[in-house]
């Protein structure tokens, strides 16, 4: 499957690698406090793979044990895919003004955190929220209080929260912020295969690059 920007780079994965990529994106999204980069190319390829698997099942002999096994695998993949997309929608609803602001201010060439469909959903959700607030509450307030900043009113993702992770690629000299004012900053090495509990914002770039996996 080609990349979403239509460039020359292509995503070439075996079916097993594709499913592992979906599961990795799902776990990262599930445990990260913020909305992560959109993965439309993974979603598109997984849907194509599911269609291919279902077509193969229709041609298989009924009663074959392999049919039941493959059907269970299809259901498992569908569950992961739907859970992943549902998790992203929940975050969009929870942090919609901050998500839209981040999308609007991203630099040219920087990966989008929203798919086109999610972007349309977020804009509609924000417009509906503003309309509801205006009609249900703000119009009854004094004129000087009839404006509200959703960016200020809606809580931001808590990037200081702690997450569990497994290291996929060794990392050196990761700067760790102190837990108390009495402590100083220090650096650590993350050994491949090791597991850690660490502040999310410390390793957010490593989640984005795929060097670590949230668990």
UniProtKB/TrEMBL annotation:
Any single biological process term in GO: double-strand break repair via break-induced replication
Cell compartment(s), UniProt: Chromosome; Nucleus
Origin: domain of life: Eukaryota
Domain GINS subunit: 65-136
UniProt entry keywords in alphabetical sequence: Chromosome, DNA replication, Nucleus
Domain DNA replication complex GINS protein SLD5 C-terminal span(s) in chain numbering: 157-215
A Pfam family annotated for this UniProt entry: Sld5
Gene3D superfamilies: 1.20.58.1030, 3.40.5.60
Entry's Gene Ontology cellular component terms: GINS complex
Similarity remark: Belongs to the GINS4/SLD5 family.
PANTHER family, A to Z: DNA REPLICATION COMPLEX GINS PROTEIN SLD5 (PTHR21206:SF0), SLD5 PROTEIN (PTHR21206)
Name recorded for this polypeptide: DNA replication complex GINS protein SLD5
Source species of the chain: Crypturellus soui
